[in-house]
Amino acid sequence: MTVTSVTGHIMGLDFDAAHRQWTSCDPVALFEAPVIKTVAGDKQQIVKTLQREARKCQVLVLWLDCDREGENIAFEVIQVCREANPRLTLKRARFSSLVPADIWRAINQLVEPNSHENDAVDARQEIDLRIG
Fold first, then answer.
1. Partner of 75 at 20 to 30 A CA spacing, among 39, 53, 104, 114?
2. What is the DSSP string of the chain?
């Protein structure tokens, strides 16, 4: 078993290059401008570590905060790890405290990552980007 960590989001959402500058377009165009999710510049080393470890794994168990934001970060980790190892089996540990009983319960009741919670955060991030 290998354990590593991330420090919050490893990806950020932004407009494509044609719409990134404040003066590059009519602000109304931003409502339909393409957005892209990319690895943040300061997170490149974390991504390299995740991908290096993912190449050696069969199962990835995600232990992130048990809220929507944690779920979204989990899907960012999934994306970069699957680039290195598309055959990974994915599981999510759900816990709300670090007491031994909760940790044991989480490891014995692993679940699938929740794409609905991830999608909710993606939508909120896109709305924040488009309308501030």
1. 104
2. -------S-SEEEEE-GGG-STTSS-GGGGGTS-EEEEE-GGGHHHHHHHHHHHTT-SEEEE---SSHHHHHHHHHHHHHHHHH-TT-EEEE---S--SHHHHHHHHHT-B---HHHHHHHHHHHHHHHHH-
Tell me how far apart the alpha carbons of residues 118 and 11 are, in angstroms, rounded to a whole number: 13
Q: What is the pLDDT of residues 57-73, one digit of tens each?
A: 999 999 999 999 999 99
For the segment 86-103, the average pLDDT, to the nearest whole number, is 95
Give CA–CA dist 58/88, Å, rounded: 5
Quick one: which of 3, 90, 96, 6 has its CA closest to 47?
Answer: 6
- Taking only the tens place, the pLDDT of each residue in 32-42 is 999 999 999 99
